């Protein structure tokens, strides 16, 4: 059983709050998604896919998934609680990240991408909004809602992502050619994210817009030449020339001083420390939950009791083929994976 505390975030059809597990007293973040809205927005399959992907993942630089359950109204996912805020929030607070800090974030997310590649997973939505900081400032990748699993020697072809961060080969699907794409798209997105952290908020609608932005406001005027060069290595239109693996990144002279084992073990401080005296999120999330939400979480127990529904959350196993609009069968389990496969 979990105790609900405060809302700290929201997505297109879900919200996030802080919860505590009663028996261990450990704090978690809990994402809850309204079933009816998922059905209306045709997101049921994506929710199940995210559950299926994340239940088999555990890494120091991912937001790890631990439990899921349901009631009559909502589905719930319980994950690591990271109170440092996402990078988008800090950009909006006009935080100016140093080159060394951005370099460290790139190394941490690169290790996460290497782990995902070994699992044959393309994230497809890497951006500041999906990189959360823990209380010590380390970066963690989250949100596998549109991630894809690709089989050996095959490519993904569906269009997915957030336009300003999508690699050029993804846009070829819009043109009808559909040659497919693979893990290199995530490294393009990481390059755009690094550029944005160095430059401040820069929004472009597609890769061609980025060229005009770089021509007008080149970041080499604000950062070292070598840092600029590294960022540009991520942004080759031709993915065969782009940095697209951990080994290629590690071969760069710019990163020759990086102790990768120390980075993996979080022994090196990133340089930016989030304010521990605050939640590092938009305070309106809780106000919206309390005032504007028609079915707020804090009144769920009374509401379900009033409707003569069970107040006890039940758990069932997830069957891969059971994805229907009327039946949301979720699962509950405790991970026993250890950090041994990175």
In short:
It contains twelve helices and nine strands.
Structural features, described:
The chain is an alpha+beta fold. The protein folds into two domains: about 1-80 and about 280-305, 2-Layer Sandwich (Phosphorylase Kinase, domain 1), CATH 3.30.200; about 85-265, Transferase(Phosphotransferase), domain 1 (Orthogonal Bundle), CATH 1.10.510.10. It contains twelve helices and nine strands. The strands form three sheets. A five-stranded antiparallel β-sheet has the order 1-2-3-5-4. Strands 6-9 form a two-stranded antiparallel sheet. Strand 1 and strand 2 form a beta hairpin. Helix 6 packs antiparallel against helix 8.
Which structural class matches the secondary elements? alpha+beta
- In the CATH hierarchy, the architecture of the largest domain is Orthogonal Bundle
* CATH H-level superfamily of the largest domain: Transferase(Phosphotransferase) domain 1
Order of helices and strands: EEEHHEEHHEEEEHHHHHHHH
Mean pLDDT: 77
- Multimeric state of these chains? single chain
The top level CATH class name of the largest domain: Mainly Alpha
Which runs of at least 5 residues are low in confidence (pLDDT < 50)? 285-292, 308-331
Number of domains: 2
- Which radius of gyration do the C-alpha atoms yield? 21 Å
N-to-C CA distance: 32 Å
Total helical elements: 12
The CATH topology of the largest domain is Transferase(Phosphotransferase), domain 1
